[in-house]
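At this stage, I put together a protein sequence along with its fold in token form, as given directly below:
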Amino acid sequence: MAANWMRRVALALCAGATAMVLAACGSSSVSSALTPSRFIVFGDALSDVGQNGGKRYTVNDGSVNNWTLQLASRYGKTITPSSAGGLSYATGNARVLATPTPRVAAHRRFPRRSTPFSPRTSFLRTT
């Protein structure tokens, strides 16, 4: 019987402490709202706003904007494809090359070590 009473008191104390912590968090007002000055977009067809001659990947009949256009419109901004001088670099069917082109590969060559790294001998004292 005493254990049941103690359990209820502990539960009441936890509930009270939780209510006090939540009340101390504030009224959820924002002191400075986010106001972006521009949107820079990277991605594939899900973010493309018309990179290839104004043709964009759309949902159904094209009456629904993709997520980048919806987000920009909520802040009163527009997104223009980079092909038209804007900051949207997203392109439909974008791919990452599995192997770099020869020009890129030439810049990423690292000098080879004269001896391979061997964890057994590199960290051991030889005295």
Residues 117-125 have pLDDT under 50 and may be disordered. The helical segments are 2-24, 67-74, 102-107, 119-122. The first helix runs from residue 2 to 24.
